Amino acid sequence: MVLTDPVLLRGRDAVDVCRRATAGGGGGGATMIQVRWKDAMPMELLQLAQALVLALPVPVLVNDRVDVALAAGAAGAHLGHDDLPLDALRLEVPPGFLLGVSVGSVVEAARAQTWPADYWSVGPCFATGNKPDAGVALGPAGFAALARLAPAGTPVIGIGGVTAANAAGIIRAGAVGVAVIGAVLGAPDPENAARTLRAALP
Question: Is residue 102 flagged as an active site residue?
Fold first, then answer.
């Protein structure tokens, strides 16, 4: 999963960069995009999400904003613990609409265990400068400890400082995949960066 970030895009067109990151579809690029743009006005976020949904061959999620995700025809939304309760939202979204949740501590894991989330995003796995409030890096062992707390059958992905050099360790620790920002958006060639990262996964 590649998350958008207006700072790392450095003026580049988000749709073009994400199209390149997903090049090859299931054969080598990113398999999901999450629209993350904390400072955007709702209409700006909606326009970007709609453009990505129309342009990409992979599912698109929207960070924090379930309403925008639904309006854009996105595949789902990703929520933090400060957002509306996922269990309540589940009753308001159509069947098949994905709801993911961030988990960064044992306390958050305990809370999320009662929620019908489609996946957990656990992190930060490693030190990251892309989310100042991310907390202390878990490392593979810390990631594994939190991943084991997910309800049976709930996929867990790793996020935070993940690169082609360290992604394999997070997969071995129990992740089904990884979410990245800088490893792809910070690269001069997003397509090659996404392929390199995908190739590094066991």
Answer: yes
